[in-house]
Amino acid sequence: MLFHVTAEHDHMTCPAREGGRDSDKVKQALKWIEGNEDVTVLGVYGHQPSHISWVILEADDFNAVTNLLQGQMLMGKVEVMPVNDQIAQRKARGWWGT
Known about the structure:
By secondary structure, the chain is of the alpha+beta class. The chain has helices at residues 24-29, 62-68, 70-75, 86-92; strands at residues 2-8, 39-47, 52-59, 78-83. The protein has a single domain (2-92), classed as Dimeric alpha+beta barrel (Alpha-Beta Plaits).
């Protein structure tokens, strides 16, 4: 399954608040970007001034996604929505290029 995630925090919960953007705290806070054996991270796009990231993940179930994003959920609002790959659906139907 594919999931679209919007993760945001504010300047008060930002891991870069103390030590800057190259700190160990930021390095660890962003470790989830690498995914794990249960979740493949397909893309992460951020707007740092707004403290917002948009993410596309692939996992077999929602629980695997929430396990990966636990640290993000403690910093701020995280919205996870299952989504469909509409390009793949169009191709599977034989509609691509017609």
